[in-house]
Fold this protein.
Amino acid sequence: MNEQELMKIWQKSYDLEKIEVNLPLLIAELRSEIEKIDSIIINRDRSETLASVFGILLYLFFLWYIPFFWVKTASVMMIMWFLFVIYYLKKTRSSHSVDFSLSLVEQLRSRRQYLLRQQKLLENAAYWYILPPFLINVLFFFGVDSSQTWDSPIAFIFPDNILGKTIVVVFLAILYTYLIWANRNAAQSTYPPLIESIDKVKAELENEGLTSN
């Protein structure tokens, strides 16, 4: 068995019964796991991108419609944050491209680094995905000036007293705290087992001396 045969298994996952060792089965199972993760990442990024586009349109409306200075300022900041989310997710996912001219070990090493970046993306979500919109939305809701009369059919959505604004902020704090937990939990439950599987297959390949083209 040479690496060219293993590369075919990695790319097509077929004809496993003709090979007598467990390594091809490990590779096939790993490929299946990776495809599932890739699908999850793609669907997540698409959902976040669509949500960000909707958020941009919503805060463009707020920017145009709501007369208060700090609300307009917060709206501009939210639009910039949504654009950053779209860019950051695209950059993180596009940073991985499979080079089939590399050895299988090198491909696995590259895939491992990509998964570590995706794991770090979720683990650090509090800093780039949670805290910025939370602080901006605090500014947004407290920017509604209770001293001014705003005759609008949507005015009731925005509390104009300290108690109402505080309730909104507490609700947002609870929501964003849950999102921090959910992202960190996903990072720990999704990526380490797959990275461990990659390490196992890579170790088997290195033991058999299949480390070069």
Summary: Residues 162-207 form the longest helix (46 residues). Confidence is low (pLDDT under 50) at residues 14-21. The two ends are 14 Å apart (CA to CA).
